[in-house]
Amino acid sequence: MQMFSDNEGGILNLARSYNKYGLNQQPNGDIEYMEWAPNALSLSIFGEFNNWNRDEYKCEKNAFGQHTITIKANHDGSPKI
Fold it and tell me: Got the DSSP string for 58-69?
């Protein structure tokens, strides 16, 4: 249980991790993405919105195996995805 307190802020925060993992649109239109993939060397977000460019939106990986990226909104506030 101490591991959850030290790394996730408690067991309840871990149970509510669906609020932070995956793709989440922010009020300003930015998209935040987080995935737990400790054995992955890298993760990227790509699709029609960026002409399938696998190098444009690469996630950063932390020591716990979480990969994260924020994809900034378009100039009009709409999400890129």
Answer: BPEE-TTSEEEE
What is the pLDDT averaged over residues 38-62?
96
Q: Under a CB-based contact definition with an 8 Å cutoff, are residues 6 and 22 in contact?
A: no
* Average pLDDT of the chain to the nearest whole number: 88
Question: Strands 22-25 and 66-71, how do they pair?
Answer: unpaired
What single DSSP character describes residue 44? Answer: B
CA distance 7 to 65: 12
Q: Quick check: 21 pLDDT over 70?
A: yes
Task: Answer yes or no: are the C-beta atoms of 66 and 32 closer than 8 Å.
Answer: no
